[in-house]
Write a structure and sequence with these properties.
Length: 136
Amino acid sequence: MFEVHASDRYHLRLHRARSVVLTPEELIEVRAAQRTFEGAYVRTALGQFSFALVVLKIFTSEFYSIGALFAVYGAGVLFVSLFRRQQGNKQFFSEIGEDQLGRKKFRTSGNVVVVLTALSVAAYAVLLVLTLRLDS
């Protein structure tokens, strides 16, 4: 999933990703993408961690499993954020192939949406089971 030397494989205007000097317009585009996508996932993860802390501190011990679930869900969203960042690098930079030709393919963030959807559905299913077990 994570590449060791991705900064050597990705290029922009024939410069490696780690040594490219961006124009002001490109810099604005990269910052906007980071603020919009990566920031949103990190803020969501922080919100889940905060809610988990509230549940663990305020409620009684029978709710600890629900608090732990929200903490695990926050960690999952944080990992999805890392995955989104890796996918975002592929969207902005072109990739130099084996034949030394640059290829720029546009990819939607469908992979990230599928992973986050699966994570959310699993978390809500576990939350439903934990909530139903509170009565007994």
